[in-house]
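User: Continuing from earlier, I have the next pair ready.

Assistant: Great, send them over.

User: Here they are, in order.

Assistant: Folding the first of the pair now:
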Amino acid sequence: MNGISILATVFAAEPPPSLELSLQQQIIAEVHHIERSQDLPAALAYGDRFRQKVLDGIQIQYELALMVNRSGDLKAASKRYSQLLNQDPNHIASLYDRGEIHLLLGRYDAAESDLRQLEVLKPDVWVVHFRLAELAGHQSKTEVFEQQILEALRDGFSLSLLAESGQHWHNWANDPSLGLVLKQIFLLYGSEEKWLQLQQSY
């Protein structure tokens, strides 16, 4: 076997994980460079060409989806996350991002599916419980709302963050049922001052 044949055999074989990871990181860096120097469509086109012709790596897929997500095109980002999750159903970051998009778009059943899967995979991460509390708030599920806030607190969440977490938390603070739950939690685990701040924010 001559030198060229040996090289062909080596490069035809599946690259070891470390080489594959390094390659994906190089392409991700190039994609970001293109985004900065040209625009998002050019960066996405470059990344997708690489995926089609060389390597459809999970890290590349996620980075492209994240770029679309940050651009504000939530439906397109959701589609990219779904394609990734078809290959890796337990990809933590994609499950979280897609669940958050579903929540923002009012797709509550789909959001719950992603977030509940995350709850199984990452039971001690407060942001998962925080998003599940938001989901319960949107659905006016008072008991689940309370349970998930308490779970988030157990895992390190700070009630002081609620005043900066969106208009909906202010609305819930003034809701007859959800507001009562929040008031009790603030008086037990926070402070009356923070509770009043949440009620009056926005």
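And the other member of the pair:
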Amino acid sequence: MRFRSLNADAYTFFRGTADLYYDWCRENAADWLHREDARLLLHGDVHYGNIGVYRTADSTDFVRFGVVDLDEAFEGPFELDVLRGVASLRVAAAARRIELDEARQTELARRFCAAYAAALRGNLDAATLAERHPAVRALMNKVHDADQRTFARRYLRDGEPPRFAPVRRKKKQPVDILDPAPPATRAALTDALREAIGSMTPASRRLLANDRAMDVRDAARWTRLGSSGSQGVGKYLVLTGGLLRHNAAPMLFEFKEQPRPAAERAGLIRAGPDRGRDVAAAHAALQGPPHWFVSHANLDGRSYLVRPKDPWSEEPDWQDLRGVGDLLAAADLVGETLGHAHRHALVASKFATHPERVAGLAEAGVDEFVRRAAAFEAHLARCFEEFRADPAAQHLALRANEWIARIASPTP
């Protein structure tokens, strides 16, 4: 399934190969890696699809926009996040056949760094992102009237009792495959969900109804066909009865295995022993305010991130980038969103790094970000060409397509 995803296009290949990026950085960004004066908690996988709206526990600020998907978070020099953000937009432009001459490449990096620095300094209010960015406003409008019960039904078969459908389709195409969990796995997931709820923050726990016992109705191993970076890790969906204080609709909880981050696999860092706990903490550090429920649990000796799958989580679609103007607007948005996340992490962290210093370094380093982003983009393009020319890789992608066709067939 991973090889199938990586075969789609250069941008999807970029999203699913964070290891390639950090392996390249080990050799080509050693000067940044050895600095100690501009370190902070990084997102680790910055790109246009890893920002979005999410529900919070704040009743006055129900939905916010910020960084999402923090599986690769780690402590390091800020430049690694900024470079990955700039490089991601260049790769997206190439995949969308948007021409960027040398002047446009510099403008892209300059816009990204300027927005990043302004947010770091606190000159841009994170709560008013929708006023400045039409893409944010569109996502806010999309989730404004979302309904949990209607959302949950998309994953369920018709009839009672409620059970997961084996295949979820969108526009008649399969997008999710849900394989029923064996009884022992379902029991373990039930225990793990209780553990995760016990680790919730007090603000999140106040949203739950105290008089409702946890009612696990179904569990399934989950394959999300549109993902790339998380293909190959253990993922489950758990269906429960309503647990929220003001909403009795069924709820879906996602369990996502948390392996070692790509930066560790590339030899840049050494992460903590419980990756799920660290990733849950990264949400609290980099999102302000954080998602209403992000927790962690252990299942069969492996660490998992646990969070609801709900209708209030949406990310922008990179295929909406249709021209240079869209790309520059995306640079403003991703840069600003990353700057808000880094400022939030620095203000309440153990790091001595000051936001003003990081902002100044980002603005002064535009030319260097342009140079290194171009070098990495060329490296990635060569890797993608080699991947597509590899018969073994293409054979595995074909096997995945055959499996999907067999599972999604209306007749056994």
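Worth noting for the second one:
The chain has a mean pLDDT of 94. The first helix runs from residue 2 to 6.
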